[in-house]
Amino acid sequence: MKNSRIKPWTCLCHDSAAGTSTRRGFLGGVGGLGVLAASVAVGPLGLLGSRDAGAAPAAVAAPHRIDIHHHIVPPAYAAELTKRGLGQAPKWSPQASLEDMDRNGIATSVVALMQPGAYFEDAATDRRLARLSNDYAAQMSRDHPGRFGSFATLPLMDTEGSLREIEYAFDTLKADGIGLMTSYGNSYLGDRRFWPIWEELNRRKAVIYTHPLQPGCCRNPIEGLPPSAIEFPADTTRSIASLLFGGAAHRYPDIQWIWSHSGGTLPFLWARFTRQEIDMKDKAKAVLPNGLLAEVQRFNFDTAQGHHEGAIAALRVLVQPSQILFGSDFPYRLAEDVRTGLAERNFSPAELAAVERGNALRLMPSLRRA
Questions:
Q1: Out of 216-225, 299-308, 356-365, least confident range
Q2: Domain map (residue ranges) of the chain
Q3: Considering the entire predicted model, what is its pTM?
Q4: 10-51+64-369 carries CATH number 1.10.1740.110
């Protein structure tokens, strides 16, 4: 049912030019995060990156990396956002993706629809945009063989529509996995309403890539700070918690989950999670019979905006390098940031090779075409 509250993908952002707070699309909030760091420069095509303006790109190895956190913006989807007053989509094209990939030794990017995905609180619209976006991604793969895989989006709040789209995405389009948001309004991925969908994806042993957005619970109370700065990583953590403590993670063990941004705030809140497991007592035995840590160590995590030393060090306390995958966050960030950042972390050559390529191939053997 529709309501009058602010949509979960919008935010109240301060308009410095007007000196007033105005309602802007979620997209502007995401892109605005980069201005918080003085060291970030504007890269080619107006994208955010750290390369000095005018500097020649550094030499990189032959393309071999697989990027599993790479957004697409189908033109019809961008037009839908504009029509609904939800902000302007970032500047993007398949060619822009290929150019950044070529600069950074990326053989293949597994693309996913930008946020808010197929979630507009209307089943017919959600189904239409999911199908449109999945067809667009599949056509990209055909147009550029070996360069693009795809995480198909679902109209997740519509169970029947999602089950139909799963069949179409995997059986007709040959998608490599599913791409979802971490929350849909106030519903997180551990919510029982989604269990019939997880049942089918568990049967298919599917990979599910997740991306956060501004959650329905939190309206970003700090003026001038975009939701991507705090609420995005927090929303990832909430969704992880919902799967773990609600029992879905254990119930559907054949789903391979990928969490963005090195797990959000999970590594830093780990002591609180383990305390919750203790406090749940007998209930913990029912939903986490193998223990909390065992479930978390089955999860996978990408490195988009989580490639700095603190994030990687904290994540590696919980999981092995075999559970970490290269992710760029293009076009919101350039792949160079992650490529150079990971090279500075304490990975052995074999571990780095796994993070940059091998782990993705283990999860999605279909990418061997890359």
A1: 216-225
A2: 10-51+64-369
A3: 0.83
A4: no
